[in-house]
């Protein structure tokens, strides 16, 4: 089977001068390629990554300014947020549906993988690992002062990086509620390498989206000042003593 | 089409397969290293190790029995090389399942009516077939489980919790499947026992000399695979059992990758426990089995409580049934067990020795072919006159993730291989990688399958390199 010409990409390169010119210099310095991914004007003039959910942890204790910004974020109207993620999802589905040949879907993912921010060793922490992937995928999530979700991801697989790149394009900067609203079945039509309605341990779309949503949910709970639900400790099966 | 031999218990010649030869630290008896000789190969391949005439190979002869193999995937002929994960099913097995559900589906050991009596008869016949297949001395030594994992857990939660005490040692290898590690971590956690792990030697084989050195009177159990699902290496189980018994330890053998591919004789190996799964040996999913020596099974408490496993139930207590019923609480996977019986008939009809001989040939061909791919690292021992590999190769290619390889092989070439850690993360850590790709064969694979795979792999590597 010979490869065919790749159709025009839809997800990136949309003309949005504001996205590249109005992002903060600090953020660009941290992640110079990331600005290309952003099409959402909501972030204009905001330095999302420099202020994280940590502000809620300090609420009312040492940083009243942070408290104010967090509350502001909570009360900020969602405006067109829901539309934006939904629109991006539609575009994502449309783009992958238009690629009839499997190889073209793989090529497209590799194309997007190359646009994921460069490898950063600090991202590859055990606590950031996405469970269930046949490749290693790491996802980090933060909530900015406006209550919007910021994601970073990395993988040792180029194809998985492509998945991550698409998901970040879709969800980075979205309201937490938007992130939580996306259903894994919405991504059924963009599967690459797995077929149909696959709820599988190897379905990277599925696993990474669920990881993003779990982290988002945890940050929402944290912001609301609730105690996180106590999960069963993951270190279940440690033997009392192991020797080699 | 291969015919099955309904109800015929095919007795296979006793055959030991201690491939990995190491100087014995304890006295071994009747132990000879296996080598491929004209006599062992003449049955299937007079000209081995050169390729047999394609039209005569076991792969070509049996492929018509497997309908699933005759399809296109993503526009290419399906090349199924994920047999270590699960095997395909011949029409004889599919037919046995269909016949059960169409003709005599009923619960076993319950009703006195015709269907129940027939289902019970066939279910117990399947147990007899498993017993004969691995040469157990009595079919009551065979417990049907959901799979091999459940069989190991059964031993862990019954024999293990009953017999393992604080500071006792459980000896394993770093190459064990997760299902042979985690149950013992749980047992160690509950009992205060110590897990000890045998590492690999320089040939990337679990170090049997080291294993023997680690045996002591503290060792209560040795848990080892027969054939590694990653390394393709074969452990000298008979030798290990002999040494373990010398210190009073029992041995549990994970035979998931050996029973489908070679003659396994539990009496010859003298293993105390041995587990395998149906789905890896051309049978249905949902059923596996535990072999346990009668005296051990008889002394073990129940695993799960429910129907079938009791003798009498009172409100305050119950009396337990004898093995194997004691360990088969609730309605078992009746049709699946019968399907497993049909799979054993099919395999026995072909001849396990013939299957094994053909797979040795395929294993060498696969290893040699893969070795020609640039920048490849194949894990496990290199085949030689005294080291024979199982017909599987786990490998990595520099700078390409194995899952990316597997994805492209599937999407572009219709080649099905496995990628990931193959439920052996400790082994992969030991090898210094997080994942590998694995091509694993069965007797219905052919030289052409391997050739197509290698060609596809080279194309895949070129594809990914072109993106760099």
UniProtKB/TrEMBL annotation, chain A:
MF (Gene Ontology): enzyme activator activity; sulfur carrier activity
Family annotation (InterPro entries): Fe-S_metab-assoc_dom
Any one GO CC term of the record: sulfurtransferase complex
Stretches that traverse the bilayer: none
Top-level taxon in the UniProt lineage: Eukaryota
Fe-S metabolism associated domain location: 95-214
Signal peptide: none
Gene3D superfamilies, alphabetized: 3.90.1010.10
Ranges where the record places region Disordered: 12-33
Annotated family: Belongs to the SufE family.
PANTHER family, alphabetized: SUFE-LIKE PROTEIN 2, CHLOROPLASTIC (PTHR43597:SF5), SULFUR ACCEPTOR PROTEIN CSDE (PTHR43597)
Protein name in UniProt: Fe-S metabolism associated domain-containing protein
Provenance organism: Prunus persica (Peach)
From TrEMBL, chain B:
EC class of the enzyme, as a word: transferase
Pfam short name (any one): Aminotran_5
Ranges where the Aminotransferase class V domain occurs: 79-453
Catalysed reactions, semicolon-separated: (sulfur carrier)-H + L-cysteine = (sulfur carrier)-SH + L-alanine
Protein EC: 2.8.1.7
Entry GO MF terms: cysteine desulfurase activity; pyridoxal phosphate binding
Cofactor: pyridoxal 5'-phosphate
InterPro entries with a match to the protein in the record: Aminotrans_V_dom, Cys_dSase_SufS, PyrdxlP-dep_Trfase, PyrdxlP-dep_Trfase_major, PyrdxlP-dep_Trfase_small
UniProt-listed GO biological process terms: cysteine metabolic process
SUPFAM superfamilies noted in UniProt: PLP-dependent transferases
Keyword Transferase belongs to the record: yes
The name this protein goes by in its record: cysteine desulfurase
Keywords in alphabetical order: Pyridoxal phosphate, Transferase
């Amino acid at each position: 089977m010979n490869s065919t010409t790749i159709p025009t990409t839809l997800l990136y390169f949309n003309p949005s001068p504001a996205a590249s010119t109005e992002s903060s210099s600090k953020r660009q310095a941290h992640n110079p390629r990331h600005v290309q991914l952003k099409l959402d004007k909501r972030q204009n003039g905001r330095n999302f990554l420099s202020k994280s959910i940590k502000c809620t942890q300090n609420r009312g204790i040492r940083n009243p300014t942070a408290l104010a910004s967090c509350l502001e974020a909570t009360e900020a109207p969602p405006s067109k947020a829901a539309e934006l993620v939904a629109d991006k999802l539609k575009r994502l589905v449309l783009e992958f549906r238009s690629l009839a040949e499997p190889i073209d879907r793989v090529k497209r993912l590799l194309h997007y993988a190359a646009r994921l921010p460069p490898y950063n060793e600090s991202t590859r922490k055990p606590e950031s690992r996405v469970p269930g992937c046949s490749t290693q995928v790491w996802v980090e999530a933060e909530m900015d002062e406006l209550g919007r979700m910021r994601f970073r991801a990395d993988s040792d697989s180029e194809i998985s990086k492509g998945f991550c790149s698409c998901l970040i394009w879709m969800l980075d900067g979205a309201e937490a509620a938007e992130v939580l609203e996306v259903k894994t079945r919405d991504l059924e039509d963009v599967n690459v390498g797995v077929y149909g309605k696959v709820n599988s341990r190897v379905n990277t779309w599925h696993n990474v989206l669920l990881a993003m949503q779990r982290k988002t949910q945890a940050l929402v709970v944290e912001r609301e000042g609730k105690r996180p639900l106590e999960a069963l400790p993951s270190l279940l099966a440690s033997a009392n003593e192991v020797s080699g | 089409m291969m015919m099955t031999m309904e109800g015929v218990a095919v007795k296979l010649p006793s055959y030991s397969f201690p491939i990995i030869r190491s100087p014995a630290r304890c006295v071994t008896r009747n132990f000879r290293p296996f080598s491929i000789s004209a006599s062992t190969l003449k049955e299937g391949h007079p000209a081995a190790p050169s390729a047999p005439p394609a039209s005569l190979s076991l792969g070509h002869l049996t492929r018509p029995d497997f309908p699933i193999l005759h399809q296109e995937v993503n526009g290419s002929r399906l090349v199924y090389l994920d047999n270590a994960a699960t095997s395909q099913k011949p029409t004889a097995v599919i037919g046995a399942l269909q016949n059960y559900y169409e003709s005599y589906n009923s619960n076993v050991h319950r009703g006195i009516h015709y269907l129940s009596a027939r289902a019970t008869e066939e279910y117990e016949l399947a147990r007899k077939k498993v017993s004969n297949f691995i040469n157990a001395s009595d079919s009551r030594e065979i417990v049907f489980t959901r799979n091999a994992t459940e069989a190991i857990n059964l031993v862990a939660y019954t024999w293990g919790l009953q017999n393992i005490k604080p500071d006792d040692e459980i000896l394993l290898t770093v190459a064990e499947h997760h299902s042979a590690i985690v149950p013992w971590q749980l047992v160690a956690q509950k009992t205060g026992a110590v897990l000890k792990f045998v590492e690999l030697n320089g040939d990337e084989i679990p170090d049997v000399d080291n294993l023997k050195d680690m045996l002591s009177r503290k060792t209560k159990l040795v848990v080892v695979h027969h054939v590694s699902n990653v390394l393709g290496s074969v452990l000298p189980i008979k030798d290990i059992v002999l040494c373990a018994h010398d210190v009073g330890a029992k041995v549990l053998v994970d035979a998931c990758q050996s029973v489908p591919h070679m003659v396994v004789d539990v009496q010859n190996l003298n293993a105390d426990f041995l587990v395998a799964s149906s789905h890896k040996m051309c049978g249905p999913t949902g059923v596996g089995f535990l072999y346990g020596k009668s005296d051990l099974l008889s002394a073990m408490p129940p695993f799960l409580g429910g129907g079938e496993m009791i003798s009498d139930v009172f409100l305050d207590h119950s009396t337990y049934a004898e093995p194997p019923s004691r360990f088969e609480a609730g309605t078992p996977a009746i049709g699946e067990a019968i399907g497993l019986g049909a799979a054993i008939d099919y395999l026995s009809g072909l001849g396990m020795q013939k299957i094994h001989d053909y797979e040795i040939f395929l294993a060498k061909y696969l290893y040699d072919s893969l070795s020609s791919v640039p920048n490849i690292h194949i894990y496990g021992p290199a085949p030689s006159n005294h080291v024979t590999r199982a017909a599987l190769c786990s490998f990595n290619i520099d700078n390409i993730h194995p899952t990316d390889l597997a994805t492209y092989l599937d999407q572009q070439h219709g080649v099905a291989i496995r990628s990931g850690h193959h439920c052996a993360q400790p082994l992969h850590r030991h090898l210094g990688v997080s994942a590998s790709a694995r091509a694993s064969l069965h007797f219905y694979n052919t030289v052409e399958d391997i050739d197509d795979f290698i060609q596809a792999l080279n194309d895949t590597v070129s594809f990914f390199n072109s993106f760099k």
